[in-house]
Structure formats: C-alpha cells, structure tokens
Amino acid sequence: MKSYKEDIHYYMEGERVIFTALFHIERGQCCGNGCRHCPYEPKHKKNNQIIQEKYLVTKEEIDIFKDNKGYDTTHNRNS
Q1: 18 forms bridges with which residues in the sheet?
Q2: Is residue 26 part of a domain?
Q3: pTM here?
Q4: Per-residue pLDDT tens digits of the chain, which is 79 residues long
Q5: Preceding peptide of 42 cis, ω within 30°
Q6: Residue 47: left (phi > 0), alpha (psi -120 to 50), or beta?
Q7: What's the CA gap between 38 and 19, in Å, rounded?
Q8: Residue 62 lies in a domain
Q9: How far is residue 28's CA from residue 47's CA, in Å, rounded to a whole number?
Q10: CB distance 56 to 42 below 8 Å
Q11: Within a domain: residue 2?
Q12: Does any domain span residue 18?
C-alpha cells in the first residue's frame, strides 16, 4: 500500500483532508468529485487522464529534481 505524506500528497484544513495535485496525478485519473486541486483538463470529469499543461515538466527538470534529492538548487524555471 502506498504511503502518503502530509504537505506533499495532502494537507489539513481543520478536520478536512485536502489532496494536492500530486496526489491526483499519482492516482492516475480524475475522480470526478470536484476536488480543489484537480490537475486534469477538463476539471472534474470522472476518469479523465489528460493533465493540465501547467503540471507537466520536462525530462531535464525531472533529472535536476532527482539529482538534488527534490531540491532544485541550480535551475531557475523562470529564467
């Protein structure tokens, strides 16, 4: 069973669990429940697997992320 980490896969708002876009992307498809951080396009369409462009990254960015163990210290995406 996959373990989920607070502030990465979800965060708490009072007693409510709010799932992040990463959680939904790892899930693999839209649940159709109107989630706040739905990363799919169109949003909230059950079983949709098309991820919004703003959540996509390049292979170079993934490699930098892995090389820095999750911390991008050498690459500024906005430059």
Answers
A1: 11
A2: yes
A3: 0.68
A4: 678 999 999 999 999 999 999 999 999 999 999 999 999 999 999 999 999 988 888 778 777 766 665 544 444 444 4
A5: yes
A6: left
A7: 9
A8: yes
A9: 9
A10: no
A11: no
A12: yes
